[in-house]
Model the fold of this input.
Amino acid sequence: MRYDIRHFHRPVCAFPGCGNEYDGDEAEWWTDPYWALDQAWEDDWLVLDGRHDEPVCICPEHLLYDGDGRLVRYDPEGVVPETAALAGFYEGHVGEPLPDPDCERGALDALLHSELVTADHPFLLPICEYPHCGAVFADEPFGAMWYPDEDAAETAVHDSRRWAMIKGDDGECHAFCPLHVLHDGDGRPVPVGRTVLPPALAERCTDPRPPAVRPSCADDVLDVLRGE
Done:
C-alpha cells in the first residue's frame, strides 16, 4: 500500500532527565509544534519563554500542588518561586503553575539552556493507487486518522468497508478510494460478495466483505495490481 508520510509533534518536558511527552486527552498529535504547545498550556503544563525566547515546557510531575491537589500558581503579590532567578521568568505570567520547590533548580536550568522541545513522530496516511488519483484515506468524517505503522493503516482501510483493498502481484495490498468503488442506488458501497466481478479481479478478491471495484475502473485497477 502507498502512504503519505507526515510528521506530527508532541511537546516534551524540558526538565533535566524527564522527557515526558504531552499526549492530550486521547493521545492526540499535532502538525504544528506551537499548536501542540498551546494545548499543553491549556492542560496545566508550565509553559514559559526561556532565555532563547522559545517556549519551554515543564510537565505536571514537577509542579507544586496544595493540600487539595490543586496547582499552586504564580501571584506576584504573594506566591512566587523561592529561586530569585526563576522568578524573573514569571514576570507578566500571573496564574502560571509554579514548580515544586525541589524542582525549581531543574526548571531554571531548562529555561536557561533549553529551547522548544517536541517529539517528532512519523505517521502514515494510506493513498488511493488508482492512476492519477492520490486521494487519502480519512477514517473519520471531519479529518484524517493517522497511523503509526502499516499494519494499523491496512486494518483501518479494510475495516472501513468504504475503500477497496486488493493484493497485487507484488504480494502487497493496494487501496482504491470510493471514487473507484461500485455503489448501489442508495450510494452505499457494494460488497464483493454481492456483485459479479471480471474473472481477472474475481480470482484476487477472495474476501466477500470489502467493496467491489467499478466495472469502468477494473482495467486500470488490474494494471496497478500487475505492476504495469
Observations:
- The chain has a mean pLDDT of 88.
